[in-house]
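Pilot study result, target chain (369 residues):
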Amino acid sequence: MSKQLNESFTVSPFFLFFLIHSTQTGVGLLNFQSKIIKGAEQDAWVSIVLVGISFHLIIWLLYFLLKKSNNGDIMSLHQQLFGRWLGNALNIFFYGYLILIVSTIIRSYLSVLVTWVFPYTPIWYLSLIMIFVISYLVIGGFRVITGICFWGMLIPSLLLFTLYFPIQYAYWTNLLPVFNHSLSDYFVSAKESILMYSGPEFLLIYFPFIKNNQISQKWAHISQAYTTILYLFITVISFVYFSQGQLEHGTWPTLMMSKIIRFPFIERFEYIYIFLWLLVILPPCCMALWGAIRVLKESFKFKSRMSLWISIIIVHFMVINVKSKMDVEEIGGFLTIVASSFLYFYIPILFIFFLIIQAFKKAKSVGID
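Predicted structure:
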């Protein structure tokens, strides 16, 4: 049975809707169309739907494992299944995964800032500012991060109304013909869309901080369904506004759609888009950094301050050593491979391994060798 923390440290199950959705949306929402179009082309929306549905199964697996974990998190689950030493070694790998998420998101967002707004500002300077803001929020604890997730979803949602402008120039025939690609094409698009759906795996860290977490699963599935619908909507709008050639060679299609928005009192609306997007990337960054600190604290008994300093130094070092746009794409591709392997291979393997251990214990308890 998983551990339930004191109520003063927990949040209501309802907030799972914001916690999961806000960690699934990030800087990838600005350019995912250019990646998924290379596979199934105009049919890539099918892959978006299928991957979204598959994440409901992943959420079910996560809940099954967490309910069986001693403390309700992946650190105790690893030690429970593999022992202290091997369990802590696996926790280190999970720590590296979280640090990679923070570094990739920060560097990708800084790439947008340098290209569109601050072309002459050093990356190290912007990185320090970003890390300072994220660290300040993380120090506030899980409840503060939950508040950031709430506002990080609510305020940027207003930008959805701006999609009215590209709809006026839509060519709906861009979606035709339908279902005329091979399974391998759909697989390519699905692989490219996995990273933008990643986020439910943070449950492995903050599950004990959810009040009545044993009965909170419905909010996780509702949030996942909302994310799938949102990505499907943005995908369709992008496909009917841009041609396939424009999407394949465009860098940030979502930002490019914002350039057509004109108001008498705003000349460059895309600047508002970019700076509001800071609220979109803060939740996954804060959650991943907070999770990394918690892994070191729970696995190796490090103090929170020491864990924070170790983590932000590693993140800053990784960010400033990603120099070019090509390097940004490479680290993004590497994170896609790691996230896909973790979600679609490692989590099911943990599930199967747990079932095997349970069956072995049950057989042993009834005297079967």
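One observation from the pilot: The longest helix spans residues 325-365. A full batch analysis is planned for the follow-on phase.
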